[in-house]
Amino acid sequence: MAIEVKHLDHRYGEGTIFEQYALKNVTLTIADGEFIGLIGHTGSGKSTLTQHLNGLLKATSGDILYNGESIYAEGYSMKELRGRVGLVFQYPEHQLFETDVFTDVCFGPKNLGLSEEEIKRRAAEALALVGLDESFYKQSPFELSGGQKRRAAIAGVLAMKPEVLILDEPTAGLDPRGRDDILGLVARLHEEQGMTVILVSHSMEDVARYVSRLVVMNRGEKVFDGTPREVFRHYKQLEKMGLAAPQITYVVHALRERGIAIDEDIMTVEEARDAILALWRKNA
Ligand code: ADP
Ligand code: MG
Fold it and tell me: What is the pLDDT at residue 34?
């Protein structure tokens, strides 16, 4: 059940000369335990959509149901929703502001009104999950490396024990190593904690390795929704939206154009290698 987005529209600056259509008629169902990649060029509406899912932005029209209940219903607790749907912002370092890492991570659970003991327990647990040990507790968040800052921000959200974890471009600005670390961490949270995860990215290559479903946004609209394989078949249309399929997809299509009968659904270099070797053995 989890989240049902129904005909969601969002206009920024409604009724002013700055009015900007950011979401148009977006309909989307996210089931419990899914790992979804939300993809789109800059400005396509990804951040706007994610901020609706935890109630930070309100729809201009349309509805969002969380476990069957409209979050716009009278008396619905937005505070509770924000604890259940955790959002790590696009620039998570902006989410850090306390004097030390441990206090910072305590901020979320503190807002949930938990006991002092429970707050500390959760903060320690969350920091362990993201791989920041006790030597980081007293450090200023601003002294951390880029990747460590992201981890601390993720811990701050995890400490609320959310049912759904949304990460808005969590790897932006990190080097390849930092990127793989964060993506690996997210994949682990999904596998080990069974958490529903929505991973926002503008890079297909990044998310394709991890997610089981891709939702593609373009100019405020949902344009594709399917397995990575299904979505990559539209690689020519994706290019028109400023996106690209993984590089190996291009290699495979180039081979096919030269009459080589290789499976067009190949997504990874390893799959391509195996397919090419199999063809080569068959012809040898
Ligand atoms: P993405 O996260 O995919 O880059 P956004 O959701 O940030 O896209 O933006 C979608 C559209 O809404 C863009 O055209 C953007 O310029 C506009 N937009 C985003 N935030 C605001 C805002 N606070 N005020 C006005 N327009 C905005
Ligand atoms: Mg964004």
Answer: 96
pLDDT at 1: 63
- Ligand 1, from 10, 14, 42, 48: best to mutate by most atoms within 8 Å of Cβ? 48
Kindly identify the ligand whose nearest atom is closest to the C-alpha of 217.
1
Q: How far apart are CA 159 and CA 101, in angstroms?
A: 13
Side by side, the strands of the sheet bearing 20-30 are 20-30, 3-12, 61-66, 69-70
| Ligand 1, pocket-test mutation among 18, 20, 49, most atoms within 8 A of CB | 20
Atom number, ligand 1, closest to the C-alpha of residue 47? 2
Q: Which ligand is nearest to the CA of 11?
A: 1
Residue type, 2: A
Rounded to an integer, what distance in angstroms lies between the CA atom of residue 33 and that of residue 193? 9
Give pLDDT tens digits for 222-277: 999 999 989 988 988 999 998 887 888 888 889 999 998 898 888 888 889 999 99
Question: Where exactly are the structural domains of the chain?
Answer: 3-245
pLDDT (tens digit per residue) in 104-115 = 999 989 988 899
Ligand 1: residues within 6 Å at CB?
12-13, 20, 22, 40, 42-48
Residue 18 CA: which ligand 1 atom is closest?
Answer: 25
Instruction: Quote the CATH superfamily of domain 3-245.
Output: P-loop containing nucleotide triphosphate hydrolases (3.40.50.300)
At 135-156, the pLDDT tens digits run 999 999 888 988 899 999 999 9
Q: Which residues contact 73 (CB under 8 A, 6 or more apart)?
A: none
